[in-house]
Design brief:
2 copies of one chain form a homodimer.
Chain A: H1 9-15, H2 22-33, E1 37-38, H3 39-50, H4 55-68, E2 72-74, E3 82-84, E4 92-96, E5 102-105, E6 124-135, H5 137-140
Parallel strand pairs in A: 4-6
Antiparallel strand pairs in A: 1-3, 2-3, 4-5
Helix pairs in contact in A: 2-3, 2-4
Chain A binds a DNA duplex (30 and 30 nucleotides) through helix 4.
DNA sequence: CCCCAAAATTAGAACCATTCTTTTTCTTGA
DNA sequence: TCAAGAAAAAGAATGGTTCTAATTTTGGGG
């Protein structure tokens, strides 16, 4: 059979030269399933599948996955790092100033670096990272008549 | 005399409702004189003028100045915060992946939020922060025949 | 001009995300 | 199946930043 099926997570790991371990498979799938999760949340997700996993193992795994280009790290100023499985497309992010929620925005202008600096000062620019700051739909409606805890 | 001279630093502090202290005057002037300095460097600069000043005082002063809009905080992922005196214009930054050097870029498109997201997901966006990643002129020339101390 | 409330400063400890070190366990290719 | 090397565990350490409580300074009102 000509195996042209979508590759398994394990295959993907092997494909980028990483060893296949239960921890990494679970981690990668947790990142992809989740929506911009942080390290703690990812550790919880992995533990749900495997039982006990150390935080350091998660950090190490994330390092490897990010270095291999399978996972992208997002670090909005003022909050801990989050991770997403969408890589390759040079998309950007909306961050809510109030609750910290993160949303994806497609890149308006083609491919990376989707933006040219007006004067690059001699820099060799390879990526433009855009963060849109604002209020998410939930936080922008003030005093909605609804029970809230806080 | 109609005092239409450029206001003193002290006047500016008063103008935004901050108390005028030697520490804050020195801090604001150090930020403006410097080029994207970090907290330690700013503390050194202030100490050169005033003698002993605690790091916490610098943190506190920076908080106040940032909150008042006299100073802007920049926090490139992976490095400690830097501060600059250029505020009001919604300009962006070039960051060198190798040495971490930071340079200003004028905003290509008018005023904040100089960029509109292709789909804002219902967010109320008030600012677009752009970081151009690349290599600065010094770091992009490989193996220049010059003595370097790594 | 002096006093007082509010604000700034200090010293020191606490915090938290992340990294480092060392040892143990697991994956993989021979 | 074995050994080499990579990954994971455990625990401590790091570094930038913030918090707490006590002290000093600032600036307006008496």
């Amino acid at each position: 059979m000509t195996a042209s099926q979508s590759p398994t997570t394990a295959d993907e790991l092997r494909g980028v030269g990483l060893r296949v371990t239960a921890g990494r498979v679970a981690l990668l799938e947790t990142v992809r399933r989740g929506d911009h999760l942080g390290v703690e949340a990812l550790a919880s997700g992995v533990r749900e599948r495997l039982g006990q996993v150390s935080l350091q193992a998660v950090y190490e795994g994330l390092h490897a996955l990010v270095a291999a280009g399978l996972v992208r790290r997002i670090e909005p100023p003022g909050s801990p790092a989050r991770f997403e499985g969408r890589v390759g497309d040079n998309h950007h992010h909306l961050v809510c100033r109030s609750c910290g929620v993160l949303a994806d925005v497609d890149c308006a202008v083609g491919h990376a670096p989707c933006l040219a600096a007006s004067d690059d000062c001699g820099f060799t620019v390879d990526e433009a990272e855009v963060i849109y700051w604002g209020l998410c739909p939930d936080c922008s409606t003030p005093a909605v008549p609804e029970h809230r805890d806080h």
